[in-house]
Specification:
The chain has 118 residues and is mainly α. The protein is built from four helices and two strands. It has helices at 3-28, 37-48, 51-77, 103-117; strands at residues 92-93, 97-98. Helix 1 (3-28) packs antiparallel against helix 3, helix 1 (3-28) crosses helix 4 and helix 3 (51-77) packs antiparallel against helix 4.
Length: 118
């Protein structure tokens, strides 16, 4: 797996698939059907929103997924820092294929490409 393939796979798994999962949960679950207090509250809030507001909520959820993934990749690449980390991180695939270095950039380029296509 190349760094680009890894960043594309993360885009699909973390951003696209998770956003779709949230859309499915929010649009197909009634608050009464949720057993968790948090989800009952979230579903009740969602149902109180207009269709346009619901669409904005999904845009926010997607953007949070993008921002979070980007920040984590920045830490792995050594661009962003984490308190207490005194050494560089390395992401290795298989026996010795180093993936980190440009993951955050590759991820954000793909996000920009997808944003233009939407």
């Amino acid at each position: 797996m190349t760094p680009k393939q890894f960043s594309l796979a993360l885009m699909q798994a973390v951003v696209e698939d998770n956003t779709e999962a949230y859309q499915d949960i929010f649009t197909s679950t009634a608050p009464e059907g949720a057993s968790d207090r948090y989800w009952k509250r979230a579903l009740t809030l969602f149902q109180s929103l207009s269709r346009d507001q619901q669409a904005v909520l999904f845009e926010i959820i997607r953007q949070v997924c993008v921002d979070t993934t980007s920040n984590v990749l920045g830490v792995i690449d050594g661009v962003n820092s984490v308190d207490g980390a005194g050494e560089e991180f390395a992401l290795i695939y298989g026996q010795n294929q180093k993936l980190n270095g440009d993951l955050q950039s590759l991820f954000l380029v793909e996000e920009e490409r997808r944003a233009k296509a939407r």
